[in-house]
Amino acid sequence: MANVMEIYRYLDSLAPFSIQMSFDNAGFLVGRGEASVQKLLVSLDITEEVIEEARSLDCQLIISHHPLIFHPAKRVTDADPVGRCVLALAENHIAAICAHTNLDAVSGGVNDALAQKLGLTDIEQLHQDGEDASGRPYGIGRVGFAPGHFYLPEFAAFVRERLGADGLRLEDAGRPVYRVAVGGGACGDMLEDVIRMGCDTFVTADVKYNVFLDARAMGINLIDAGHFSTENVVCPVLADWLGRGFPSVEVFLSKQHKEVFYSL
Length: 264
What we know:
CATH superfamily of the largest domain: NIF3 (NGG1p interacting factor 3)-like
Largest sheet: 6 strands, mixed
Oligomer: single chain
Shape: globular
Number of helices: 10
Strand order of the largest sheet: 7-10-12-13-14-11
Distance between the termini: 47 Å
CATH topology of the largest domain: Udp-n-acetylmuramoylalanyl-d-glutamate--2,6- Diaminopimelate Ligase, Chain: A, domain 1
CATH architecture of the largest domain: 3-Layer(aba) Sandwich
Number of domains: 2
CATH class of the largest domain: Alpha Beta
């Protein structure tokens, strides 16, 4: 038998919440710490559909990547999506723990999961942000070597298939894909790090127009593979961590939460 706080402390040992970025709101966000957990659900986001899924599975806890409560809440009512979710969690006695930028940065987290999903080898950090209290280095992004000989169209097709992405946006610099940087989620501002690490190709998401222009000027192949697709790769990792840490707890991966848009 485990309770919510025991699971929180376990996640904190793997992806310390103390290293989250200053703007973030990762942590234990909803519920009672002493509540027992027999079943839990892992999802990229906590939405009304995910909460209903957790309720139908009789889960006592949802663990997500994106924080349910990101901005300071002045009220909790059914008049807005966050309020409805908080109320639904409370009414169904479901707790919420969210591991966000701390999970992005740690070894084995979002960016390692993305690099491994794309078959990169000799993986290293794209940018080191610091060391945690145990002296373990952490940072956003990863760099590795492509798992074969590609030019961008072939590599983009490979990325789309591996990530199950609905669609990609590309800047083709005409260079062979050899040394690849990845940044799960919105990491378009890391182009300088990509160049510093000697990369020819960058896979990330939420890329702004000016970043595509910069990539063209810098001669970098750029792939925007979507926020959901580049980060959802961590959910099976979380499920595996939790299954190994709490073998008596039944762990589910959300089947309801999927990409929020589609491409024509």
